[in-house]
Structures are given as structure tokens and as C-alpha cells.
Design a protein that fits this description.
Blueprint lengths: L1 E6 L10 H9 L2 E4 L17 E4 L5 H13 L4 E5 L10 H9 L3 E5 L4 H8 L13 E4 L14 H5 L4 E4 L6 H8 L8 E6 L8 E6 L3 H4 L9 E5 L30
Parallel strand pairs: 1-4, 1-5, 2-3, 2-4, 6-7
Antiparallel strand pairs: 7-10, 8-9, 8-10
Helix pairs in contact: 2-3
Bound molecules: S-adenosylmethionine.
The site of S-adenosylmethionine (SAM) has 25 residues, from α4, β8 and β10.
Length: about 260
């Protein structure tokens, strides 16, 4: 018996990996976070699969499913939205699997922050604009962000920021960011990036965002991306494809 943690991707049925979809076809039991993973992803499951929506289950109840599957030697696919390594609440399940001596394996997925960048048709790292992406969130009821990683501390870098799980706290987030980023800094809210139904984008600037949106509309499944990379400017190009630049795989045209 084994538990396969699988990144379901951001929502589109064809943004799960081939490995993830094949694993889904192979197992007898599927546990999925129904609040974030759309049901369309379950199309890869075999017809007689037992499906548990974990949105309504405590960790104890999920552990009961692990125990029962072990007793009957059945494999489980545990689907997490995006990539399970990011805000997946996977660590506490792994603790239990270790205690129960159950084997597990992780299959990565397309995270929502890269899906959001794709929807925005942009790169999140541009030479001399930003070469660092901070993935973060603000403290919520479920878990706190360590003080050393407070938004104030992270915002001082003025890098590209992708802020997860923070719909309800947008006013506080914007006001903190404005202490560090200029008011004209571009940003985008992306909701349900890649979903068949419900995908939404709002592009704005830090100083105007809050006057343009209804907070309630952005509470769930929304990502805030902030930074100059969202602007149109590309002050310099990367040398990677420059004709004047040699590297291990290509000689500069001037040296040929
Ligand atoms: C519990 S976290 C899981 C993140 C996930 N593991 C990932 O890699 O994207 C849920 C948060 O991810 C973001 N999120 C997940 N799917 C999204 C999507 N399709 N579009 C925009 N944001 C999304 C939202 O900020 C949401 O509140």
C-alpha cells in the first residue's frame, strides 16, 4: 500500500502532469481537496474508484482513511491543488504516514503562481527589473506566518511578489506594500487561473486597486502578483540568446 501525493495543477484538466494522471488511473482510492481542485480533474480516475472530498474532513478522519486503506492493501492518490509542496498541508499527513509505516511518494504539479503568470502572458523575472520571486501569504486563521517573514520584511526587497491565500486581507496587504513599493507599481489579481469557468483577471496599480474592486469578489482562489515585471518595460535583454555571447552550447557569432 502506498499514498501518492499528486499536484493536480491550478485547475485546467490538462495542466496535471502525465505522471499524475496515470497514477490517478491506477489507484483504488482518491482523496482530493474539493475546495480548490475542480472535479474535472477526477475524470482521470478509474470508474470504480472510491472518492473522498477532504474539504469536509478533519486530519483525524483522513488518517482513518489511510489506516483502512493499509488494512486492505489499497493505494491512495492524495490530490493537492497546484504543487503539493506549497501551502499543501502535506507535512502533517506525512508525519502520520511515517507513524503508520505507510510508504508515500510525491508527484509535483503546476503551481497557481506560474499558472497566473501564464494567464497574464508575462515572465516573472526580467533582467535588471527583478530576478527574485517571493511566494508568500499573510497570517490567517489556519496558520501564522513567522515574524521574520512578515510582509514588511519581504516587501523591502521590492522583488516580484506572489501573494497566496490572502483575499480577505487585501486592504492590509496593499497598505503594507505601499510603504515600500511606489504607488504606480503594477499588480494583478488572478482568480481561478486556468479554470474552465470562473477565470478572472484584474490589472491595476498599488495605489488604485482598492478603489476599483469589490473585496468579496476576490476572496477565494485568488493570487495577487505585484512588481515591475508586470509593466511593459524591458530595460535590457538577457544575454542568453545574444549573438555576442558565447556559452557552453553556442559560440558568439563574432567568434565563428
Ligand atoms: C492552499 S493554497 C494551495 C496552493 C497550491 N499548492 C499551489 O501550488 O498553487 C490555495 C491558494 O492558492 C492560490 N490558488 C490556487 N489555485 C489558484 C488558481 N487556479 N488561480 C489563482 N490562485 C490560485 C490561491 O491564493 C489560493 O488561496
Amino acid at each position: 500500500m502506498k499514498v501518492f501525493f499528486i499536484g493536480a495543477g491550478p485547475g485546467a484538466e490538462d495542466l496535471i502532469t502525465i505522471r499524475g494522471a496515470k497514477l490517478l488511473q491506477s489507484v483504488e482510492i482518491v482523496m482530493y481537496a474539493g475546495s480548490l481542485v475542480p472535479r474535472v480533474i477526477l475524470k482521470y480516475c478509474r470508474s470504480n474508484v472510491k472518492i473522498h472530498n477532504t474539504a469536509s474532513l478533519s486530519l483525524d478522519k483522513q488518517v482513518d482513511i489511510f489506516k483502512a486503506a493499509k488494512a486492505h492493501d489499497l493505494n491512495i492518490a492524495r490530490l493537492h491543488s497546484g504543487d503539493p509542496a506549497i501551502y499543501g498541508a502535506m507535512a502533517e499527513q506525512i508525519e502520520w504516514l511515517k507513524k503508520l509505516e505507510i510508504e508515500y511518494e510525491i508527484t509535483p504539479g503546476v503551481s497557481s503562481f506560474t499558472a497566473a503568470a501564464a494567464v497574464l502572458k508575462t515572465e516573472l523575472t526580467k533582467p535588471e527589473v527583478s530576478q527574485t520571486i517571493i511566494l508568500t501569504r499573510v497570517s490567517g486563521r489556519a496558520s501564522k506566518v513567522p515574524e521574520l517573514e512578515s510582509l514588511e520584511k519581504l516587501a523591502s526587497h521590492k522583488s516580484t511578489m506572489c501573494i497566496f491565500l490572502s483575499g480577505r486581507q487585501l486592504p492590509e496587504i496593499v497598505s503594507t506594500l505601499l510603504q515600500f513599493y511606489p504607488g504606480k507599481t503594477p499588480l494583478a489579481l488572478v482568480q481561478k487561473a486556468s479554470w474552465n469557468v470562473g477565470e478572472k483577471i484584474h490589472r491595476s496599480e498599488l495605489e488604485t486597486l482598492l478603489s476599483e474592486i469589490k473585496l468579496d469578489d476576490w476572496e477565494l482562489t485568488s493570487m495577487l502578483i505585484v512588481g515591475d515585471v508586470l509593466g511593459d518595460e524591458l530595460p535590457v535583454e538577457s544575454k542568453l540568446y545574444s549573438g555576442q555571447y558565447s556559452h557552453r552550447f553556442r559560440q558568439a557569432e563574432s567568434l565563428k
